[in-house]
Amino acid sequence: MNDKPMPAHWIDLASARVGGRALVTNDEFFAGKENLLREADAVFDPHAYTDRGKLMDGWESRRRREDGHDWCVVRLGIPGLVRRVVVDTAFFRGNFPAQCSVDACFVDEVPSLSWLANEAPWQNMVQRTDLQGDCKNAVEVSSSHRVSHLRLNIFPDGGVARLRVHGEAAPDWKELASRGQVDLAALENGGVALSCSDMFFSDRNNLLRPGLSTHMGDGWETKRRRGPGHDWVVVKLGHPGVIERVVVDTSHFKGNAPASCDLDFATDPSASVDDLGRREELWTPLSARRPLIPDNVHEFRVDSRAQAATHVRLRIHPDGGVARLRVFGRVASA
């Protein structure tokens, strides 16, 4: 059960960086539940202790002396379809749980944490499964149900460093369409950066994250180009839509912003990643080449000519970093 590479169209639905939260647990004596969803991998300091024992970068319950098991309820930052759960026991070697299971539900409103823990309509998603210590234990999930919350059960007790919930965003497009103009490319709305020319310094999907960028590493940055050409990224929109406005944000990129950019759009929902990379005829210009200012938010009025765009390609010249890309438009049909 080792961790596998995550397909390009999946994201971590539970990451704290996209709004995931560990809401309630029955026990966090040794280490707090909020560690479970931290984006960075767990770290270990062999000399660090607290007044309760060894400092561990994860969630850890006390040693259970009675029947039962421990659990933690998590709210996904982005409701969606779960494809894989990774229970990472990094650095938990003599204190990891023997087994785990995962329950799931979708709820719009939570009357109380007690109700959520005990009375929510939980359905089993991952059956009771053996765990290995100091390991990324990955379990594939086959489910067509939209999920907003998970309950991680560990048997009987112990520590888990990180919980990763890989899957696809599943927004309520009827509700989003009623708002008028929406960000069709946002991660929370199902957008995903499918491919790019280079992401040496930071991941392409940072472009589509919620909120403002917090530092230079919280964006997409390519290596320094020493030959001809330019860098690019292809984004699949969460839903086809008529694009009206684009934001290219270079915040925090001060000595390494691109000199200029241009954008294209495609209208083929079935186009493969290879097709989008090889077949130039699939692309239609969306914005002419425009200069970019370092550490600045650029907003462009654009026109996809009443066509329902399915993909956007951002080309940066010649290289550099972009913090966020927003693609605002109207949903073609919900």
- Based on Cα principal axes, name the global outline: globular
At CATH level 2, the architecture of the largest domain is Sandwich
Residue-averaged pLDDT: 95
The third-level CATH topology of the largest domain is Jelly Rolls
CATH class group of the largest domain? Mainly Beta
The largest sheet, given as strand count, sense and whether it forms a barrel, is: 8 strands, antiparallel
Distance between the termini: 38 Å
Q: Please compute the radius of gyration using only Cα atoms.
A: 22 Å
Percent of residues in helices comes to under 10%
Q: What's the total helix number?
A: 3
Low-confidence stretches: none
**What's the number of extended β-strand segments?**
22
The proportion of residues in beta strands is 35-45%
Explained architecture:
- With 334 residues, the protein is mainly β.
- The chain has two domains: 11-169, Galactose-binding domain-like (Jelly Rolls); 173-331, Jelly Rolls.
- Helix content is 5%, strand content 42%.
- It has three helices and 22 strands.
- The strands form five sheets. Strands 1, 2, 6, 7, 8, 9, 10 and 12 form an eight-stranded antiparallel β-sheet that branches.
- A hairpin with a 2-residue loop joins strand 3 (49-50) and strand 4.
- It is globular and about 70 Å long.
- The protein starts with 10 loop residues before the first strand and ends with a strand.
